[in-house]
Amino acid sequence: MLEISKPIGTYENMTGRRNWQHNTLSQRTEDFMAAHVNAFRYFGGVPKHINYDNLKTVVLSRVGADIRFHPRFMDFAGYYLFKPVPCGVRKAHEKGKVESGIKYVRSAFLAGRVISSHAQVQAEAERWLAEECNVRIHGTTRERPLDCLETDRAGLMPLPANDYDCAATASARATSQAIVHFDSNRYTVPFGFAGRTLTIKAWPRRVAVYSGARLLASHVRCYEKYRVIEDPRHYAGLQAQRKKAQMSLLVESFLALGPDSREYLRGLSAAELSLQGQLGKIMSMAGQYGKDEVNLAIARALKHHAYGAHFIQNIILQQRAARNMPVPQPVVLTKKPQWTKVAVEETDMALYDQLFEGDTDE
């Protein structure tokens, strides 16, 4: 018979005549069941009965002999065909039998040990089991637990072909930033699934996110709180999508300048120039000189098949020089350059230019 005790701090322990130890970062049901699966693999089979203290992951409530088991755990037990046996109420010898293994681990392995990580303590536990725990002379059997393994295996049931899926499952809606919230942390998914309702499956060491049966993301599970766990690949296409959206907005704004904009756009597209760069410069001129000034320049440039922001700039300067108009200086926001992209209602700059018409320096 194998005996299971509930987790102590971040550790969970299984003992038989041959000891086995599993360290976990939580006492959640998925961790508890995963510890069983690992133990079954270690021993090479499943015991017919397993003794438990009355922990909540196994027993939800009991009144005397009337026991209400945790339904998820009973599904797990049914998969492996073992019978869970909770300790009897006021039967100290049964509870003591379950807890004796934990007391031994506390005193012989954990006492005075400095633990820096889960991986470190698990590696040290496996070494301790192999070099000390399972080769000592057992106080009850007067034999080495290692030597009893083959005898114990004869009484174990065979393992099923596949392990039980111990994952905790939850449904979550991805945010506009392509993030799902789970267990006080945030995990990224591919940005194309932002805003969708997805399925989260969490194992002791891994968190996976699915859309239906399709795996979207797989992360190392974080046991801290309020952390963002990212996969840079989830945003690989986001920059290209943003550039496409910016270009679409730029073209839309350019076409709204005036009646000649569409034809001039065709010419710009055919020229061996950066279309986005050329449109950006022309739209900056529209903000600096006004739409009317730029529209006049576009019309003149079309007549001469002159395609490019530098042609528009030269035409505008010639137009203003002919009218003896000053050149307004662009506003440069060195500390907040992103503010230059803020859309505002345009003012007709020609109204201000009229104030200077006819003026000359004397």
SSE layout and pairings?
Blueprint: E1 2-4, E2 11-15, E3 20-23, H1 29-43, E4 49-52, E5 59-63, E6 66-69, H2 71-80, E7 83-86, H3 92-110, H4 118-131, H5 149-153, E8 168-173, E9 179-182, E10 185-188, E11 197-202, E12 206-211, E13 214-220, E14 228-229, H6 238-255, H7 261-270, H8 275-289, H9 291-303, H10 309-322, H11 350-353
Parallel strand pairs: 1-4, 4-7, 10-14
Antiparallel strand pairs: 1-2, 2-3, 5-6, 8-11, 9-10, 11-12, 12-13
Approximately what portion of the residues adopt beta-strand conformation?
Answer: 15-25%
The coarse silhouette is rod-shaped
Averaged pLDDT: 83
Q: Structural class of the secondary elements?
A: alpha+beta
Give me the CATH superfamily of the largest domain. Ribonuclease H-like superfamily/Ribonuclease H
Q: Can I get a quick summary?
A:
The chain has helices at 29-43, 71-80, 92-110, 118-131, 149-153, 238-255, 261-270, 275-289, 291-303, 309-322, 350-353, and strands at residues 2-4, 11-15, 20-23, 49-52, 59-63, 66-69, 83-86, 168-173, 179-182, 185-188, 197-202, 206-211, 214-220, 228-229.
